[in-house]
Write a structure and sequence with these properties.
This protein has 469 residues and is an alpha/beta fold. The protein is 29% helix and 15% strand. The N terminus is likely disordered.
């Protein structure tokens, strides 16, 4: 997976107000905040629910985390041992001691699988809920789940964005993780926050206007309305009037104390930030919790590099091929950060009573090969163990959402190769997420040619993780 840089946006000379490289003239921020003309009929009143999606690109090893096979042959089982949790019958890897203390607050799904072994195909398969047209590349031919959610839930009444994605600064291109909107258009893409929120000087671009600028902004908006009034009067399509609404919401977001405060981690007690961990995983987690509290409906937290010094035997994300990393040493470095951040986030959601209205999902695009391979490492220059891509089996953790937790759904065979019980696909997971958000996953949208497209072409909610009445 190659790093991609973020487009800096339009030339600042063409904007009357430059704030982080975006303009209130309908460029960048206005595209992001573009309102839908009217939400499709959804039936019942939408629930006040949110989703935190922890995305682990590269593919975490299911047999070093949530689906260990201690009785498998040595070339399969790996170096680590399972440990019991506080729920009888549920074991996790010894590198997850914090998970072991709170297994009663999450559910493990061990039987989700698909057929796309390339990162690009795997990302598209996971992020869209559709079988992609091509097995490689991360440019979507169907809208990402985030675009569907924004399309269905945005109503223009809240200054908070519907969907937010937290990513590394160098990974802020919308296509890096197949989060593109395809035929739904760029107005449905999530608001992207690049960088490590724990870094000194970290700043979220495109939110907040200094108080002394507000009157100048009001004056310039009034001038803009006067200059463009004739164009709006003769505009038969209504596009210019719609742009007024888009710009209004952009300005509302820029001037909103609520938005500014939601992104301000300095308001969190240092002791709590310590609990999460001063790394990219931990600080993205605490920011994500703040955002769902403030009204964001879907927050994607991309956990690739923890943001600490990477050892020579490690790799950037979870892509633990033998040529990339010594998988067991990489796990010993990476997984403790993951364990601390995710366990603390789950505890924090429960402590605040958010477990009923916030569903947490943690997964990558696939698992890793059950059989260990040995290759010469690119960085180390020595023979070392690793695991390759394996979409035939993967593990997913879910928590909160008002569900019955402390359970395991599905199972793989004795070598962790493929599911043998409660066989599921990514679509079943997304059908569950859509239902939790009050979206009918069988609802029909229309592409640019006017063809009807069901939100999910197949899949049904996983009843075991649906909210308990």
């Amino acid at each position: 997976m190659t790093k991609q840089s973020h487009c800096p946006g339009p030339d600042s000379r063409r904007s009357f107000l430059e704030l982080g490289g975006l303009s209130v003239l309908g460029l960048g921020m206005s595209d992001f905040l573009r309102l839908q003309a009217q939400a499709e009929e959804l039936g019942d009143k939408l629930p006040d629910t949110s989703v935190i999606f922890v995305w682990l690109p590269g593919g975490p090893p299911h047999m070093e985390t949530y689906d260990m096979k201690p009785n498998a042959p040595a070339e399969y089982r790996g170096e680590f041992n399972p440990i019991p949790t506080n729920v009888s019958g549920i074991d996790v890897c010894e590198l997850l001691p914090r998970h072991a203390q709170i297994a009663d607050k999450f559910t493990l799904i061990r039987s989700i699988h698909h057929k796309f072994a390339d990162h690009g195909g795997g990302h598209k398969r996971l992020m869209t809920g559709r079988v992609p047209a091509t097995p490689t590349g991360t440019v979507n031919d169907a809208p990402a789940v985030t675009s569907i959610i924004k399309k269905m839930l945005e109503d223009g009444r809240s200054e908070m964005p519907v969907c937010v994605a937290e990513v590394d600064a160098s990974r802020a291109n919308i296509d890096t993780f197949a989060m593109g909107p395809a035929w739904l258009g760029p107005s449905t893409t999530p608001f992207i926050v690049g960088g490590n929120p724990g870094d000194k000087g970290f700043k979220v671009q495109n939110i907040g206007v200094r108080k002394e600028m507000e009157s100048r902004l009001d004056d310039r908006l009034a001038m803009l309305r006067g200059v463009d009034q004739f164009r709006r009067d003769v505009d038969r399509s209504g596009a210019m009037r719609a742009m007024d609404d888009f710009n209004r919401q952009a300005v509302d977001m820029l001037m909103s104390d609520k938005v500014r405060d939601a992104f301000d981690l300095s308001k969190e007690p240092p002791a709590l930030r310590d609990r999460y961990g001063w790394n990219a995983y931990g600080q993205r987690a605490i920011l994500g919790r703040r955002l769902v509290e403030a009204g964001v409906r879907f927050i994607t937290m991309v956990w690739e590099h923890p943001g600490t010094t990477m050892p020579k035997y490690g790799t950037y994300n979870w892509d633990s091929h033998a040529v990339n990393a010594h998988i067991f040493k990489d796990c010993q470095w990476r997984i403790p950060y993951y364990d601390q951040a995710l366990a603390t986030l789950i505890e924090d959601l429960y402590d605040r009573g958010l477990d009923k209205r916030v569903l947490l999902v943690a997964t990558g695009e696939f698992g890793r090969t059950p059989r260990i391979t040995v290759r010469r490492g690119t960085q180390t220059g020595v023979e070392q163990p690793g695991r390759d891509h394996w979409p035939q089996a993967m593990s997913v953790l879910v928590s909160g959402g008002g569900m019955r937790t402390g359970q395991v759904i599905g199972a793989t065979n004795s070598k962790g190769e493929h599911p043998v019980e409660r066989i599921l696909t990514p679509n079943d997971l997304w059908a569950s997420v859509y239902r939790y958000l009050g979206i009918n996953h069988k609802h029909t949208l229309h592409d640019l040619q006017g063809r009807p497209m069901q939100i999910l072409p197949f899949g049904e909610p996983i009843e075991e993780i649906m909210p308990v009445a």
